[in-house]
Amino acid sequence: MALPAAFVEKYTKLLGAEAPAFFASYNEAAGAGFRVNPLRPAVALNLDLTDPISYSKWGYRGQVNGNAIDHVSGYVYSQEPSAQVVGAVADAKPNTKVLDLCAAPGGKSTHLASSMGNTGLLVANEIHPTRVKVLASNLERFGTTNTIVTNSDPDSLAAVLPEFFDLVLVDAPCSGEGMFRKDPDATQYWHEGYAQECAQRQREILDAALLMLRPGGKLVYSTCTFAPEEDEQIVSWLVSEHGMQIDPIVKTDDMRSGRPEWSDGNPDLAGTVRMWPHVQMGEGHFCARLIKPGTPDAPVTTKKGKKGKKQHQNNSITSAQKQLWADWQQANLQVTLPGFPVVYGDQLYMQPAGAPKFGKVRVLRPGLHLGTFKKNRFAPSHSLATALKPADFKCTVDVSAAEYQDVRHGLTISRPELTGKCHVLLTNHGMGFAIGHLVGGTIKNLYPKGLRV
Ligand SMILES: C[S@@+](CC[C@H](N)C(=O)[O-])C[C@H]1O[C@@H](n2cnc3c(N)ncnc32)[C@H](O)[C@@H]1O
Fold first, then answer.
1. Does the chain have fewer CB atoms within 10 Å around its N or its C terminus?
2. Taking the domains of the chain in order of start, what are their residue ranges?
3. Rounded to whole angstroms, how far apart are CA atoms 349 and 342?
4. 123-144: per-residue pLDDT in tens?
5. CATH assignment of 5-291, given 3.60.20.10, 1.10.150.130, 3.40.50.150, 3.30.470.20?
6. Which residues belong to the active site?
C-alpha cells in the first residue's frame, strides 16, 4: 500500500528500529474478528471459535458472514480484534449509567450492553443523522433493551445531563491511521497537521464528555489512530487541564504501553494501551481509562423545566393503549415485559429504568421498540424478534435454510398444519430473526422492508 511520504517520515522517527515491521504490516490483510452476543440464549453457532481474543471476553478472530443467521439474528457482532480492547477496558458494570458519546455504527455500544447484561442505562449517542440510524439498527439487531439512542452534538447533550453518568466512552473521530488497511482511501485525507486538527475536535468533545461524568466516574478515551497528538498528548491534556487521573490498564501480550516520551513524559501514560498491527492480528487502536476527581454527592437531577414535564405527559401511555398492549402480550408472549412503556406518536417503546429527561435533544430510540398502535390493534415491532428469547413467545416456527432466505426476501411461509391466529417468532437453527403473523396456515412476513435482501 502506498503510504503518504510524510506519514512514513513521521513514524520512522517515532518508531526507530520497529518502523520496518510497522510499515510491512500495511501490506498484509486486515485482521477480522467478531464477538458472540452474551445477551442471547446459548445455541450452537456455525462459527469457528478456535481463536479467542485473550483480552475480549466474547471475542474471536475470524470472519462473519453478514447474511448468515447468526449475524442477521444478532447472535454475533463483527468487530476487528483491536477495536475490542475498548469495550474490554471500559468493563461497564451492570445497573450503572453509561454514555457512549460517539457511538455509530455501534461496535463499542453493543460491547458495553454485553458487559452490562442489558441492565442499567446505556445512552448511545451519535451526532451524524444518517449514521445514528445505522447505530439504532445495529443495537436493535443485537437485542439491547437497556439502551436509548440519541442524535446530538456533545454540547447539547451535556446541557441536559450534567454529571449524570458513571462511565463515559469517547471513541473519538480521529485521523484513522489504523484504518488504512480496511479503507485505503483514508490515506487520501491524511496530511501533515491533520492529527492536530483532529486533536482540537477531540478536546471539544472531551470537554462536553467530562461535564456529563459524575465525580469519581470513569472516562474511557479511544482512537483508531497512532498519532501521539490524538493519543498520549490528549491524555496529558486531560490530566493537566481537567485534573483527570490515569487508571492503569493491565496489559496482555497483544497490547503495548502508551509512550510517555511521545507526550510530556508523565510515566503514568504507560498505563494507557496501544494496539499495533505489527504486534497483534488487528488494525490499530489507542485506549486510555481515567478517573474524574471528587466523590459523588447526592445525585444531580436535571432541571424540571416546562419542556421536560410536557414531554413526559405527552409520552404517557393511555389506558386504551395500555389495554391493547396487555392484550397483545397475553395472546402472544409467555412473559410480561418489565419497564416503563412510553408512547411517541403511535409508537410504543419500553424505556429503561432511570431514563433522564432529554429536553430538546433528539431521541431516536427511547428504549426497546415494542410496536405500533393501529386502529384498535397493536402491531409488534421487529425489535421483539431479537430482544426476546424464543421461549418468551407462545408460538415459534423454525424455518428451513430455503425458508430463511424466503423470509429475508419478503415472501410468506406456509404451515397448513398450524391453526389459529397469532404473531409467531420465526427462528432458524433456534435463533429468532423475524416476526410473522400466522393466519389460516400462512405466515405473513413482517420482516422490515429496509432489512430485506
Ligand atoms: C470512531 S467513530 C465511532 C465508532 C463507534 N464507537 C463504534 O465502535 O462503532 C467516531 C464517531 O464520532 C462521530 N463524530 C464526528 N464528529 C463528531 C463530533 N464533533 N462530536 C461527536 N461525534 C462526532 C462520527 O460521526 C463517528 O460516528
1. C
2. 5-291, 395-453
3. 5
4. 999 999 999 999 999 999 999 9
5. 3.40.50.150
6. 224
> Does 198 count as an annotated binding residue?
no
Would you say the CATH fold of 395-453 matches that of 5-291? Answer: no
Architecture label for domain 395-453: Roll (2.30)
Annotated binding-site residue? 260? no
In angstroms, what is the span from residue 172 Cα to ligand 1's centroid? 6
**Which position has the grid cell 483532529?**
198
Q: Model ipTM?
A: 0.99
Could you tell me the pTM of the whole model?
0.95
Atom of ligand 1 nearest to the CA of 204: 19
d(C-alpha 296, C-alpha 401), whole Å: 53
Mean of the pLDDT values across residues 215-226? 98
420: left (phi over 0), alpha (psi -120 to 50) or beta: left
Q: Is 410 annotated as a binding residue?
A: no
CA 275 – CA 304 distance, rounded (Å): 44
Cα(225) to centroid of ligand 1, in Å? 13
**pLDDT score of 304 more than 80:** no
Atom 25 (ligand 1): residue with closest C-alpha?
128
To test the pocket of ligand 1, the residue of 127, 144, 203 to mutate (highest count of ligand atoms within 8 Å of its CB) is 127
Going by pLDDT thresholds of 50, 70 and 90, the confidence category of residue 339 is confident
